[in-house]
């Protein structure tokens, strides 16, 4: 089978290679899956560069999220051959993977591969962060990198709960798109001062920040919080840590906390987990929440896909299909 792997960490264009590998062999509790589609997430890139919370075991395939079809069943026939499933695994940029049967999620009827392969990480992260934030109708949420796949999902989900959403962009072309999704305030941080706009437009400031960027923008977002506000950090797109202002934390009684989807899901009981997936799938199938696809590429054209992924102003996911 074909697989995209790396033998050392570094820039994806430099270290990723297409190689032939033996078919993986499943254990009694595992299912062999023929992978159909995988989307490229920022976490994939961080993993390849050696900057993620999981250390690669070389040689390692890239990618964490995908959808595919059951090729060989586990010993209990939890999922029948031919069943379409959604899953996460370390290394999905390959033609076949084995995954423990209890970690698979059946694809709802009518959901395309392009949607199914991105129905886990970003939608569940947005759902989980909104749930954990405690935000209610009328409260203000600030999302950095508002035009990201996560940002657009979080805008839509929060708006449907009556939460007021402000978000940051760096390109004016994205403003009308995000306003159309429900954002009440869109701030171009290349042209406007974030704290100044927040102070002028929002009485008292922001209740909660979802920060995916870090660095200076993260610090400015933190300064936009009202007293007793919370910043939830879940990404580091700038590759720079947030320079925290100790005075702000002390005198405004601010809280900064991390959010990692894996940890949050593990904290849920079965009922809460099923509710989360049911809510996400209902959103996606009813198109109350929409996801965008910029382009699809065959797995062996991953280098071209990475070039497309890095393009400025991209508004949709890049999908690797097979």
Q: Can you characterise this structure?
A:
This protein is an alpha/beta fold and about 325 residues long. It has 2 domains: about 150 residues, Quinone Oxidoreductase, Chain A, domain 1 (Alpha-Beta Complex); about 140 residues, Rossmann fold. Helix content is about 30%, strand content about 25%. The chain contains 12 helices and 16 strands. Strands 3, 5, 6, 7, 8, 15 and 16 form a 7-stranded mixed sheet that branches. The protein has a 6-stranded parallel sheet with strand order 11-10-9-12-13-14, sandwiched between helices. Strand 13, helix 9 and strand 14 form a beta-alpha-beta unit. Helix 4 packs across helix 5. The protein starts with a strand and ends with a strand. The model has no long low-confidence stretch (mean pLDDT about 95).
CATH class of the largest domain: Alpha Beta
> Would you identify the regions where 5 or more consecutive residues have pLDDT less than 50?
none
Strand content: 25-35%
The end-to-end span amounts to 11 Å
Report the helical percentage.
25-40%
Shape: globular
| Rg result | 20 Å
- The CATH superfamily name of the largest domain is Medium-chain alcohol dehydrogenases, catalytic domain
The secondary-structure element order is EHEEHEEEEEHHEHEHEHEHEHEHHEHE
Mean pLDDT reading: 96
Biggest sheet overview? 7 strands, mixed
What's the number of structural domains?
2
- CATH architecture designation of the largest domain: Alpha-Beta Complex
Count of runs of 4 or more consecutive helical residues: 12
The count of strands amounts to: 16
Structural class by secondary-structure content: alpha/beta
The CATH topology of the largest domain: Quinone Oxidoreductase, Chain A, domain 1
């Amino acid at each position: 089978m074909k697989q995209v792997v790396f033998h050392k960490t570094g820039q994806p264009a430099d270290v990723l290679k297409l190689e032939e590998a033996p078919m993986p062999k499943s254990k009694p509790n595992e299912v062999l899956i023929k992978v159909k589609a995988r989307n490229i997430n920022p976490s994939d890139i961080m993993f390849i560069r050696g900057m993620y919370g999981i250390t690669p075991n070389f040689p390692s395939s890239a990618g964490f999220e995908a959808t595919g079809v059951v090729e060989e069943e586990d010993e209990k026939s939890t999922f029948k051959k031919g069943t379409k499933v959604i899953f996460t695994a370390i290394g999905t940029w390959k033609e076949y993977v084995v995954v423990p049967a209890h970690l698979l999620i059946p694809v709802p009827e009518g959901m395309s591969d392009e949607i199914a392969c991105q129905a886990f990480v970003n939608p569940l992260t947005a759902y989980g962060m909104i749930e954990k934030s405690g935000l209610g109708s009328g409260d203000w949420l600030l999302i950095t990198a508002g035009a990201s796949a996560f940002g657009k999902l979080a805008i839509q989900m929060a708006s449907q709960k009556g939460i007021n959403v402000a978000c940051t962009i760096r390109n004016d072309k994205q403003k009308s798109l995000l306003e159309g999704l429900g954002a009440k305030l869109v701030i171009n941080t290349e042209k406007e001062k974030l704290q100044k706009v927040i102070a002028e437009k929002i009485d008292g400031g922001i209740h909660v920040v979802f920060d995916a960027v870090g660095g200076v923008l993260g610090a400015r977002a933190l300064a936009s919080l009202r007293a007793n506000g919370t910043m939830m950090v879940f990404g580091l797109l700038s590759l720079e840590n947030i320079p925290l202002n100790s005075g702000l934390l002390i005198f405004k009684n601010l809280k900064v906390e991390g959010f990692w989807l894996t940890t949050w899901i593990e904290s849920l009981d079965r009922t809460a987990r099923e509710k989360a997936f049911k809510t996400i799938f209902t959103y996606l199938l009813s198109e109350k929440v929409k996801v965008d696809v910029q382009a699809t590429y065959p797995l062996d054209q991953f280098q071209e896909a990475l070039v497309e992924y890095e393009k400025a102003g991209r508004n949709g996911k890049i999908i690797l299909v097979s």
